[in-house]
Amino acid sequence: MLTVSPNDRFEKEFDGVQDVFELQRNLNNCFAYDLVPSVEVLTAALKAARRVNDFPTAVRVFEGVKAKVENPDQYKQYLESLEGLRVELGVALREELYPQEA
């Protein structure tokens, strides 16, 4: 029996997203697990947010990661891994948008 990893499942689901509701539903499911989503899953989610033109949800992806990681260094590692895509898609971080709250 062939098993599909959660990463593969979520990547496939984000690749098929066609509207904001579907994007947000998949993100809720993805972040419901105890683990932080992989960089590959987050990449697929950010590309889906861009495809459906949902900037606020793209920003919230990073907020979700920040809330799920165990420490600030892990968050920095995710930011470094996703920096190129974040710049390419024009996704700002909440701490960039509202520096006084950071």
From TrEMBL:
Subcellular location: Mitochondrion inner membrane
One term of GO molecular function: metal ion binding
InterPro entries linked: Cyt_c_oxidase_su5A/6 (IPR003204), Cyt_c_oxidase_su5A/6_sf (IPR036545)
UniProt entry keywords in alphabetical sequence: Heme, Iron, Membrane, Metal-binding, Mitochondrion, Mitochondrion inner membrane, Transit peptide
CDD domains: Cyt_c_Oxidase_Va
Membrane topology designation: Peripheral membrane protein
Subunit structure: Component of the cytochrome c oxidase (complex IV, CIV), a multisubunit enzyme composed of a catalytic core of 3 subunits and several supernumerary subunits.
Protein name: Cytochrome c oxidase subunit 6, mitochondrial
